[in-house]
Design goal:
binds nicotinamide-adenine-dinucleotide, 3-stranded antiparallel β-sheet, 3 domains, 12 strands, 10 helices, 7-stranded mixed β-sheet, single chain, Wheat Germ Agglutinin (Isolectin 2), domain 1, 354 residues
Length: 354
């Protein structure tokens, strides 16, 4: 097996872009997807970083992921936009869709954007960061069409995906609030990373293929003794479960992208549907109050004394910013199994494995 490595972001990005180019992407697309994946690693979310590349290469070779494909506008009525991702790279069609939604929100004050049939959109916070950088609020509900890896509250097997939810709020002259999370207790990709690294999951995260609690991340990564898989649990008990269902109904059904309601298949492609609501606070008539009240609340919040044994109060988005600073300086550590899988993906498209 290949050894794990620590690698600087530009070098990693060049390696990933080369693999994606060989898998059929234009130079521009390969660079954009590679940059997005490396930024996920830099942000501390290895689950949505370059470790996805072997799966993307397989999905391209299977025909489920279409390189060099743009999002197609299927409806445009001003504040309502619908797009078909046409199974293109989510890192590309998602950005195209968000660019349109941002322009529209600036023009008319808000935009409800429905994107269906995007291949894996990666880290959803990426899209909220695009909006907050323009001073806009951005809310995202996303479903996942792949293996159903998350169990409903009080259910005994996986019925839906890790359905992420994300809210971005700009804070004047400060770093923005970017809340971006899977509605499962942890992202499925984090279980792949844990399994590859030989680590256990926190209790309360997983059930095995018989519906019993377990801490073995392998139950959602490799086929189990009876041939099935275990499942992840939702965060926040019935409340996180409810939000996961909302993501499926809004990101899957309302966007037209589709919901999951069938047994797992072997396909390597992962599709996301995303409902995004983008709001321009300048156009809502509350901009002055919004700016003042948001900052006063955040200051108030952060004056809370650190709880015993904690580092004190953070704002969503802070951990990713801190990780970026550290990893840009120190490099990105990639475990041996993930680096080996990336090498195997390179070999599949005719590049040297290391
Ligand atoms: P997570 O559990 O690490 O939570 C991340 C969120 O919590 C971030 O907004 C972070 O800033 C905030 N946070 C973390 N610690 C905090 C603290 N101490 N105080 C305040 N805020 C804090 O994330 P996750 O659920 O593992 O999701 C990881 C990524 O996976 C996300 O980017 C998500 O979009 C992505 N994802 C994508 C898909 C897909 O199909 N495309 C599916 C699931 C998840």
């Amino acid at each position: 097996m290949a050894a794990g490595i620590t690698i600087q972001a530009p070098e990693l990005q060049a390696r990933i872009a080369a693999i994606l180019r060989k898998a059929g992407s234009s130079t521009e697309e390969a660079e954009a997807v590679a940059a997005n994946l490396v930024l996920a690693n830099l942000s501390g979310h290895d689950s949505h970083g370059v470790g996805m590349v072997p799966r993307y290469v397989d999905a391209v070779l299977e025909g489920g992921l279409k390189p060099n494909t743009s999002a197609r506008v299927t409806l445009d009525t001003g504040a309502l936009l619908a797009l078909d991702g046409q199974r293109g790279y989510g890192q590309v069609v998602g950005v195209q869709a968000m660019e349109l939604a941002i322009t529209r929100a600036k023009d008319v004050g808000s935009c409800v954007m429905a994107l269906g049939q995007a291949h894996h959109l990666g880290r959803i916070g990426h899209f909220a960061e695009m909006a907050v950088a323009q001073g806009l609020v951005s809310i995202h509900f996303v479903n996942v069409l792949s293996r159903p890896v998350v169990a409903p509250w009080h259910g005994g097997d996986g019925r839906f995906g890790t359905n992420p939810c994300c809210i971005g709020v700009p804070l004047q002259a400060r770093e923005p609030f970017v809340l971006d999370f899977a509605t499962s207790r942890v992202a499925q990709g984090k279980m792949r990373v844990a399994h590859n690294a030989g680590k256990r999951a926190e209790p309360g995260t997983l059930i095995d293929e018989d519906g019993r609690p377990t801490t073995d991340p392998g139950v959602v990564v490799v086929p189990q003794p009876k041939g099935g898989f275990g499942a992840l649990m939702t965060f926040g008990e019935h409340k996180g479960y409810g939000l996961a269902v909302a993501c499926e109904l809004l990101g899957g059904a309302l966007t037209g992208g589709g919901t999951w309601h069938r047994p797992a298949d072997q396909a390597r492609s992962v599709y996301n549907g995303m409902l995004a609501i983008v709001i321009d606070p300048q156009r809502l008539g509350t901009a002055d109050t919004f700016t003042r009240e948001a900052l006063e609340f955040v200051d108030w919040l952060q004056k809370s004394p650190p709880g015993p044994g904690t580092d004190g109060v953070l704002l969503a988005g802070d951990p990713e910013r801190k990780a970026r600073e550290e990893r840009r300086r120190d490099g990105i550590a990639i475990d041996a199994a993930t680096w080996g899988e990336i090498g195997a993906a390179a070999a599949k498209v005719g590049l040297p494995a290391a």
